[in-house]
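Late entry, 2BA complex.
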Amino acid sequence: MKMVIAVVQDKDSGRLSQLLVKKGFRATKLASTGGFLRAGNTTFLIGTADENVPEVIELIRQSCKSRQQMVTPVSPLGSAVDSFLPYPLEVQVGGAAVFVLDVEQFHSF
Ligand code: 2BA
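Prediction complete; structure with ligand written out below:
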């Protein structure tokens, strides 16, 4: 068994949820926050048999778009002033960051 962990943009999470339910995959959604942008995103935990992993990854790929996002730096107080960039920065976010982990045991009581 594997655990697929997928960090996706909030805008894509509804579409991915619907597809997973439609295809019979079980998933848990967690509200999460990106460490860099400090903006909300959604983390899916999808436990599934090894042979289903390619299909799950394909569903994630179909559901999640990559987007450009502007980061407006917050003026720092204190020691970081020297490295402060006073202009907005554009970064490309997603489609999705996906991790596949081995599951040693799964119990459902
Ligand atoms: P954030 O950490 O908010 O990152 C948003 C986007 O900002 C990233 O998109 C990337 O394009 C850029 N970025 C992140 N760290 C950067 C840095 N140190 N310098 C320059 N640009 C940087 P994605 O790579 O598509 O990541 C989207 C979200 O997926 C991330 O949100 C984070 O929540 C998660 N993620 C990505 N890689 C991860 C990893 N290795 N471990 C855990 N979470 C990850």
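Residues 7, 34-37, 41, 91-94, 97 surround 2BA (CB under 6 Å). Will revisit in the morning.
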